[in-house]
Amino acid sequence: MFETLTKAPGDKILALMGEYAADPRPTKIDLGVGVYKDEAGVTPILSSVKKAEERILAQGKTKTYLGIAGNKGFGAAVLDLVLGDTLDRSRVRIAQAPGGTGSLWVLMQLVNRARPGATIWVSDPTWPNHNPIALGAGLTVKTYPYFDTETRGVRFEQMLATLDGLGKDDVVLLHGCCHNPTGANLTNAQWDQVAASLAKTGALPFIDLAYLGFGDGLAADAYGTLKVIASVPEALIAFSGSKNFGLYRERIGAAILIARDAAQADIAQSQLLNIIRGSYSQPPDHGAEIIRTILEDAELRAEWEVELEAMRNRMIRLREKLSEAIRTKSNSADFDFIAAHRGMFSLLGLENAVVEHLKAANGVYMIGDSRINVAGIPEDRVDDLADALLAAIK
Ligand code: PLP
Ligand code: TYF
Q1: Residue 367 Cα: closest atom of ligand 2
Q2: Res 175: pLDDT
Q3: Ligand nearest to the CA of 373
Q4: InterPro entries of this UniProt entry (predicted)?
Q5: Domain at 2-45+305-393, CATH class
Q6: C-beta separation of 133 from 108 below 8 A
Q7: CA pair distance 163, 5, nearest whole angstrom
Q8: How far is the C-alpha of 187 from the C-alpha of 137, rounded, in Å?
Q9: Which CATH architecture has domain 65-296?
Q10: Ligand 2 centroid – CA 4 distance (Å)
Q11: Sequence ranges of the domains in the chain
Q12: For 43-62, what is the mean pLDDT?
């Protein structure tokens, strides 16, 4: 049977992880895959997570099945974290899913059940997994203008013009904060305009919220999501706990749906649970129980918020240091955008040949589109990195 197959393309981001690991140079720098790293270059287990795990180990009583919608306390805690008391909860449903990716997957399947073959509009560029997940669900993918390669900001007028031209059968995928891969984000005033556009056209907002708390803080990063969902009757949110809780390999996320009313929410949720049952039956518990334990306990929650803030502030400090080093060395403001971007990533706008040169000559690894993970910048080697970048673009 397998003779009918040809080799599938690999994931470029994950492949780069392997290439980096195989590079023997001790001076190599990993700005590739989007995982947070501390000063020592380690992706740590948060202390709040360790404590929650100790409690779970000591107090856990059963490993029986969790149920299709997952850990109920986790669901309630995530809704509190993301939505607060901004919405009438009778219109809102949540189902735990394996990571932000699993949440995207089940929600896109749900979109296709409601509107087979519907068009989902994604930013140009977007996270490379959006496309295959949407296509796999049966949807049609189109792009709206987003990144301005000149300013390294958002081409907002063009983006809004495209959104204004959509109709009620369209779906719009928005990065809630910390845009991947560009690092360029909407201002609050621009979110207001996007929300007004969606309210006017009736297009369905689908928010990918994979980095809540990694930009400017939990409340600041939720602005766009809350503004949009307050402005429209229906919306979808794919939440990930991979980055903000450092739980990458636990595969923990949540699919959230907001319907016109409670009756429609129940019907949509029954379809969502049916999709989950027909794919992996039900989610694993460990990551969900960790997040529930942290969010329900005032002390652990406070500790987590401090740890999240430390990760965020470190990324902002590295942004400032790198852009300042480049400014000082080159006497130009060309890379100041790195300090203005937020989240884990910045798209530098370099030619692929420059990216390849940096890898070969300097052992600096970034994604082929010139996306860097700022958390991977070694704090004591900012000058080396700035020198390498400036030499490579000469
Ligand atoms: N969406 C975006 C934009 C991402 O960058 C990621 C990154 O990993 C995800 C979703 C999903 O993450 P995960 O499935 O690891 O929770
Ligand atoms: O963009 C990133 O680097 C992260 C991690 O298939 C990631 O979102 C990358 C590729 C992938 C899954 C996760």
Answers
A1: 3
A2: 98
A3: 2
A4: Aminotransferase_I/II_large, Asp_trans, PyrdxlP-dep_Trfase, PyrdxlP-dep_Trfase_major, PyrdxlP-dep_Trfase_small
A5: alpha beta
A6: yes
A7: 39
A8: 31
A9: 3-Layer(aba) Sandwich (3.40)
A10: 29
A11: 2-45+305-393, 65-296
A12: 97
